[in-house]
Design goal:
Length: 300
């Protein structure tokens, strides 16, 4: 990252929340389920489907984990009731992963039971590397019980090649992304090129293995590589989809839809918007720069 960008990003936590909230608006559907429903409807009108995510991670009490489970279940009821073209994404730390693996597994199982009743797909998001083994373990157990589930793998981790190989043999439904958390050079590729190369190798392994893949990226290099693979292998619609984040590269999303590809948007919502938005700003220091400009404009 450019030095100036590093300085901008490092200063973000000092900015008042109300200013951050204004700029976070592009990345989150809003704070309530009603906001999320409205966003999904709007996307449907643009031929884009969604995955809804209730924001909130790193909780510290059982009560918070149970509240988070209930919120996810409310989303499932809403998807069914409102006939939304959406599935659900969950983060295991918000469901108690750091409190206990069994406790978390039971919370997830409860969500998957409700989802299965409606035939709604549930995606296990992947968090930082301290969660990878447990997330995969819980996924493998529950995927055997609830096949309408999938997992995320991150191309920046060295271990992902082995993880993917094991999961591919079970014909798992993947979302493949680069990975958003800061990981140490001993366990993760650091350069953009290495992360891209790893992504392409993994995507190839997953599609060759006959798995459905959610190609989650806004990186034109990777989108072009994926398109070449789709053409070269003659992949059909039921074998892949592109996935993008709300508020990022909508022109690329429109092009993919226009060219006949299935596109799904990650639609986060909820009160706990701050951590998620800060990660998005760090990915895009240009937007972080606007936050600073807004601050200084107010103070002039
Ligand atoms: C649907 C989806 C789900 C994801 N789930 C996970 C997950 O479970 N675990 C995980 O670790 N990571 C997840 N990620 C994040 C992912 O790992 C990357 O951090 C993120 O997608 C940025 O990488 P990129 O491939 O888009 O490439 P980049 O090189 O970061 O982005 C390519 C281009 O997209 C634009 N862009 C990217 N980010 C922004 C932004 N915030 N604001 C404005 N423009 C931007 C810029 O033009 C940039 O040049 C997910 C991403 C997507 C799309």
């Amino acid at each position: 990252m450019h030095l100036l960008n590093k300085i901008v990003v490092a200063g973000l936590p000092a900015i008042p929340k109300r200013i951050v909230r204004f700029f976070a608006g592009r990345y989150i559907a809003g704070e309530t389920l009603q906001h999320a429903i409205a966003t999904v409807r709007q996307l449907s009108a643009e031929n884009v489907c969604a995955t809804l995510d209730v924001l909130g991670e790193d909780i510290s009490t059982r009560e918070e984990a149970i509240a988070s489970r209930q919120q996810s279940n409310e989303v499932l009821h809403a998807i069914a009731r409102e006939k939304l073209d959406s599935n659900l994404s969950i983060k295991l730390t918000s469901l108690g992963l750091k409190i206990g693996k069994d406790f978390c597994g039971e919370n997830v199982r409860e969500i998957l039971r409700v989802a299965a009743g409606y035939g709604i797909f549930v995606r296990f998001d992947m968090e930082d590397s301290t969660c990878t083994t447990d997330t995969i373990d819980i996924f493998r157990i529950l995927n055997a019980e609830f096949p309408n589930t999938g997992i995320v793998l991150q191309s920046y981790l060295f271990r992902t090649e082995n993880d993917a190989r094991r999961l591919v043999s079970g014909k798992v439904n993947f979302r493949l992304c680069k990975g958003i958390y800061k990981e140490h050079k001993e366990i993760a590729f650091q350069s953009r090129e290495e992360v891209q190369q790893s992504y392409i190798r993994l995507l190839d392994m997953m599609v060759q293995g006959g798995c459905y893949v959610g190609i989650a990226t806004h990186d034109s290099v990777l989108v072009d590589a994926a398109l070449a693979m789709i053409r070269g292998m003659g992949l059909q619609k039921h074998q892949y989809e592109f996935q993008m984040l709300l508020g990022v590269r909508s022109e690329l999303r429109r092009t993919l839809v226009r060219d006949g590809h299935k596109v799904r948007l990650y639609v986060p919502f909820g009160e706990h918007w701050y951590g998620y938005s800060m990660r998005r700003f760090k990915e895009n220091p240009a937007v972080a720069g606007y936050v600073f400009k807004a601050l200084f404009a107010r103070n002039r």
